[in-house]
Queue: 4 jobs
Job 1
Amino acid sequence: MTDRTDRALVGAFDALLFDLDGVVYVGPEAVPYAADVIADVRAQGVACMYVTNNAARTPQAVADHLSAIGVPAEPDQVITSPMAAVSVLARFVAEGSRVLVIGGEGIELALAERGYVTVRSLDDVPAAVIQGYSPDLTWRDLAEATFAVRSGLPWIATNRDLTFPTPRGVAPGNGSLVAVVARTVGREPDAVAGKPEPPLLLEAIDRAHAGRPLMIGDRLDTDIAAGRRIGIPSLLVFTGVTTFAELAGAIPQERPDYLGADLRVLVEPYPEVVTSDGHSSCGDAVARLAGAVIEVLGATDQPWDGLRAVAALAWRCADQGRPVDASTALVHLDSLRPPASSQAAGH
Ligand SMILES: [Mg+2]
C-alpha cells in the first residue's frame, strides 16, 4: 500500500485544486471514481480544495452537494467565482455600494459578506454590475444588465466559460450569456473574476497553505490556463468537455502537464513521456511522424498512453512551426475509450 502511494502521481503534491463540473460531478451526479479517489488522497493527508467558476451557488450549497455524492466537504474548502468577483469589485466602487446582481444567490451572499448591497433593478441606482450564471436567469435579467452597462456602470463577469457539461449534454455557460449583453451594448466586461484569471486559485492555495499544489480540471481554456497563468502544474481529465483533438491542438498556455481518463490517474504511477524530433513514446505507445502525419503504434487496449505520446509530439511540432495532422491517430485512440454508458458525460 505504501509502495503504491509513493509511486502514485499524487505523491508529488501537498494540495489538489479540483474544478467541479466535469471533474467531481456532472450536474447532480458524481463522476465515476471521484468519491473513492478523493477519500483515498485525503486519507494520505493531501489537502483538497474545490475551485469553481459556477456562480449560481454558495460555498455551503456546494459543500452540501459534494457531501451528498460521497465527497465530504466543508464550505471553507470551496472557492467560487463570486468570491473572486467581489474582490475585483473593490477596484471599481467603494465598499457598501449598491451592486446590480445578474445571477444567483452565490453572488448575493459574497457581496453581503463584504458589505455591499444587492439590487435587482437599475432603478435602485447601483454603482456596478456583476453578472454570473443562474439556471433561473431570464431575458428580463439580461435586458436589465444591458440597460445598466449601457448607462456606463462598471461591469464584472464572474467567469466567461462558454459552456458547461450537464447529464444531457453541453449547455450554455455564463460566457455565452455575457456575450449576449456584450453583443447588445458593443463592449466587453471591465473585468472577469473566474478561471483562467488567478484569484480563485491563489485563494485556494493560500487557504490550504500549499507548497506543491496541482490544478485539476476538464477545460483547457479555464482550468489548465489558470494553472499555467500562476505557474503550477495541471492535470486534465476527460470526464468533462475537452476532446482529444482539442488537447492535441492546444496552444502552449493551455497544455496540461498530465492527463488521464478520470481522477484514478492520481492514485496510479504516471508513465514518463519521452519526446524527440519526429518521435515520442509513453509506456508501450509510440507516436511518430510519417511526412506531416502523426501515426500512433502500440496503443491497443486503452487510449491514454497513446494520447500522451501523440499530444507531446503534436505540441513539439507546433512549437517548431511545423503543421502536422494527428486526426487519424486521434480517431483511432478515441475508438479505444470505454463505451459512453460507463462515462458520466456524453463524450
Ligand atoms: Mg469543469
Job 2
Amino acid sequence: MVVKSTIMLLLYYVPICLVIFGSFSSVPLLFFLYLLSGLGMAGIGMGIMHDAIHESYSSNKWINKLMAQSIHLIGSNREMWRIQHNVLHHSFTNIQEHDEDINAPGVLRFSPHSERKKIHKYQHLYAWFFYSLMSLNWVLSKDFVNFFRYKKKGLIPNKKVRITTFLSFILWKTLFFVLFLILPIWFTSYPVYMIVLALLFMQFVTGLITAIVFQMAHVMENAAYPLPNTSGEIENDWLVHQLQTTCNFSGKNNFAFWALGGLTNQIEHHLFPNISHVHYKNIAPIVEQTAKEFNLPYNNNGSFGSALYQHFRMLKLLGVK
Ligand SMILES: [Zn+2]
C-alpha cells in the first residue's frame, strides 16, 4: 500500500508540476503529461482513498483518516463518497432506488427494474461518453447535488459535519482547479483553450477508467438485481446477496489487480470491505471454494476485455428489454 500510494501520488503530481515549471511548448507533451496525472488521479481513487474510507488501508485508524483525505486531493469529498459508496452502495448493492450506483441519469438504464425509454436502445453506443464525464461530474457538481439530497434524507444529521463538509468542497475543489487550470495558464505559454482541452482530456480518461471498473462489478448479465418483498426486506442473507450481485474480472492479471486497487476482485471486496485490497488475491480461492460448496454463484467474467464486452452486451440488453 505504501509503495502504491507513493507511486500514484507521484504519478498525479509530478506531471502537472512538469507542465507548470517545465517551460515546454509541445502540445502532444502537454496532453501526455495531463494524461499521466489523470492515471494518477484514477489510481489515488481506486488504490488509496477507496481503501482508506473503508478503513481498510491500515489497522491504525489515524492512518486511515489521513489517507482518506486523498479524495480531497482529487477534488471530491470524503463524506459524500462515504455515504454514496460505503453506506448506500455496499449495504444495498444492486437494489433499485437504494443503490445509487445503478440509479443512472435518464439517458442511461443500469437496472432491469428501472423505466425503459426509447433512447436506451442506443445506450451501449453512447454510455461511454457519459462514463467519461464521471470524474468531472464528481469534481464539479455531484458532491453539491448529493449534499443537498443527503441532507434532505437525514443522512448528514450533524450540523458541524454539514458545515465542515461544505467548506471542504469549496477549499479542495478550488485548489484542484488552481493546480490543474490556473497555474498552468499563469506559468506556461500554452493558450488558455489548450490547457482547458488538456484538463478535459485528463478528466475524460480518469472518468472512463473508473466508471468502467466500477460498472463491470455490478452491471453485468450474471449479476442479480434482487427486489425487496412486500415488507421491504431482501430475503437473502447479506453475504449471499453480495455474491449474487457482484462480479470479478481479470483474475489472472496481476498488473490490473495492482493498478486498479484490487477492484478486479469486487466479490472479495464486497464480502470483506474492511480488509485491505492487497489480501483479496489470497482470499479469492477460499471464497470461490466456499461459494461452490454452498451452491452459490461466484461470478467471474474472465479477462478485462471479456468483462468489458459482457458489460457492453448488458447495456445493449437493458436498452431493449
Ligand atoms: Zn467499496
Job 3
Amino acid sequence: VKQEGRSALAFLVPAIREAEQQGLLRVRTPPGGERLLCFCSNDYLNLAGRNAPHAACGAGSSRLVSGDRPVHGQLEEAAAALVGQESSLVFTSGYAANVGALSALMGAGDLIVSDERNHASIIDGARLSRARVKVAPHLEAEAVEQALREGGYRRALVATESYFSMDAETPDLRALRAICNAHNAIFYVDEAHALGVLGPEGRGLCADAGVLPDVAVGTFGKAFGAAGAFVSGCAPLATWLWNRARSFVFSTGLAPMVAAAALSGIECAGREPVRRETARLRADQLRKRLEALGIRPRGSGHIIPWIIGDPSAAVEAAAALASRGIDVRAIRPPSVERGTARLRFTVGAAHTESDIDKAAEAVAWALGRGLSCAAG
Ligand SMILES: Cc1ncc(COP(=O)(O)O)c(C=O)c1O
C-alpha cells in the first residue's frame, strides 16, 4: 500500500517536541509490577486482579498512572498489524476512541468534513474538537473536495466510516484518499463494522481498496467479540493520543481481561477464516432470499438493511418476525433519516443455512399478512 498523505499529521512531531521541552510529555513507563509497591492505583478493594482466567480483571487506573499492562501493548501491536499501520492506541470503546481522537487532533480554526451518516461518536468527537464541521452528503466525494477547496482553515480532516452500519454502504475510499492528499487533509476512517469480516483476511475495506488512511479506527466489540477499540496510524499519532485524548488520559484503562479477549478475538479471526467465509456466505444467502421475495436490501455484505419506510410499520414488522422466532430490530429516526425506518438484519458465522431459511420464511409470512414496505 502506498503510504501517501502522511504529511497531514506532520504537525504532531513539533507539537510532541514542544510538550517534551516543557516536561509535559507522558511516555509509557513499564508497569511497576512486582518490583514496586503500588500507591497509585484506584483498585481500592484489591478486586481488579481477582480470579480471572487469563489476565487481571481491571486495570485499576488510567494507563498513564498505573493501569498499563503488557496485554495492552500486545493488543495495540496486533491491531496496528491488522490494519497495516505503524502503531495504535487502545481505548475502552469505539465511542471513546472517536471522541478522544477527533478532539485531540483538531481544534478551533480547523475544518472537519464529515459524511452525513457518520456514527454519533464521530459527530460528537467533531463537536467536542471545536473545529468547524461541514457535513457532506452521504458518499459524495465531490462534496468533500468542494468543502476542502473552499479553504479558510488551519488543518483539515475528512472523516468517514468504511462500511456504514445502517446502510451497508462503502464510500469511494480511493477517491477520498486522493482528495485528502491533494489538500493535505487528514484521512480518518472508522472501520468498526468492516474489520474482521470484510477485505483481504478481514483486514477491512481500506486494505481492500489499497488505501492507507492517516487514522484508522477499529472496535473489538463487534466482529472480535470483546469490547474496546483502537486508533491506528503513525507512531507520533499514538504518542499524541496517549497525551491528549481525554477519553483515554482521564479514564481507567481497558480491563486487561477484556484486552486479552480482544487479542484472542483478532487471533482467532485470523486463524479461522471459515468464520468470515460463513458470515459472507450466509449474508449472500439471506440477501438472495429477500430479493426473491421482492425486497431490495440496501448495500452489500453482512449488514442487510430492509427499508420499510414508516416507523410504526417497521416496529410491526419486527414484532411479526419475532412471533416467528426471528429477532431483528426496527431502526427508526433519529438513528436513520425520516421515512427510512428499517429492519436491519446482521448475519454472522453462527447462522446455519436452516437459520437463513427460517428468517426468509418468516419474512415471506409477514409479507403474506400484508406487511407494507417501501421499494427497498
Ligand atoms: C462506526 C462506529 N464507530 C464507533 C462505534 C462505537 O463503538 P463501541 O460500541 O465500541 O463504543 C460504533 C458502534 O456501533 C460504530 O458503528
Job 4
Amino acid sequence: MDIVSTKKRSQMMSVVRQRATPIEIAVRRLVCGLGLHYRVNNRSLPGSPDISNQYRRWALFVNGCFWHGHKNCRKTAARNSPHLPEANRSFWADKIQSNRRRDARNCRILRSYGFLVIIVWECQLKCRDRLEQRLKRLLIRRYPSSSAGGLLEASGR
Ligand SMILES: [Zn+2]
C-alpha cells in the first residue's frame, strides 16, 4: 500500500524538481553579477540547463560531483570514478554512468545547435573568484561589442 496519496506525492515531487540547490543559487548569483540575463531550467532545451540564454546561445549546467560522476574531483577524491557507498555499489556505478551518458548527449545536441555549453562542478565553487573569471572569459564571446556592457562593468571598467 502506498502511504502517501498520489496527489501528495506529486506535490512532493514537484517541490524536489523546483527547489534550486545551494550550488545552483551560488552560480546564478555569479552570472547575475556579470550583468547577464538568463533563464532557469529552460525545458525547451535538451537537459533543461540550469542557467541559459537561448538567444545568446549559451547553456550552463551546475553538476553535483557525485551524481554526475566528476572525474579528477577533489571533493569526491576520485580519479576515475566517484567514491561509491559500500552498499549497492554496482547500482550506484550504473546510475552515475547513465547520468554521465545523458549529460554528454545533451551537451552534444546543444553544441550541434551552436550553443556554448559550460559545466560548473560543485567542487569548483570553492574557488569562487576563479570560477567567476572563467565564466566571464567564456561568456563574453557571446556578447560582442556594445552588448557586453554588463560584462565590462563587472570587470570594473
Ligand atoms: Zn568535483
